[in-house]
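Thread: "does anyone have the structure for this chain?"

Original post by V.I.:
We have the sequence but no experimental structure in hand. Need at least a predicted one for the grant figures.
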Amino acid sequence: RLVGSEMCIRDRPILFLSLTGIYACVSQWKTLKSNPQFHILTIVFGCYFLMVMISAFDSYWQIKTLTVAIASIRFYLSTIALLIFIRPKHFPILIQSITVIIIFISFDALFQSYFGVDIIGRASYEGRLNGIFGENHPKLGPVLALFLPVAMIGLRVYPPLARWLCIIAVSYTHLRAHE
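Reply from O.Q.:
Generated one for you, tokens below.
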């Protein structure tokens, strides 16, 4: 899926960031080794990766579980790229951007939940919401679960009522995505 004509537009930024992460590991290794955020990232990702690999032994669909585990390395490499190349003053902008996108995705999926189509008229995946990801791409739930903590950080600057309404909307959408 990473190369060829089937690669979707939404896969390209992660591919670019992953390749940039590989470059950062090679070119900025000394800086990376001394970065405490890198150590935390590596420990957290290592624990996640280990749990997924262990769960593969008992998985109903072992190949899929292993494929997901190996494919998740792209997120680790992407985060390394962000750690090296984004300056600290830009992190709040990144957090706010992710927050806005997640809230938009959630409200688009809620719209789809109530009207049967998303805001541009695409129908939902059979039995699941798919939101902006389009038909035959039931990725809404995992994306919301992955980015909800980032959105919660981004929502800290808003009044409590607005913050909690957005968190509840994202959480509710995540639950509805799996019905």
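V.I.: this helps a lot. Helices lie at 12-27, 29-33, 36-56, 62-71, 73-85, 91-115, 140-154, 160-177.
O.Q.: and The chain is about 70% helix and 0% strand.
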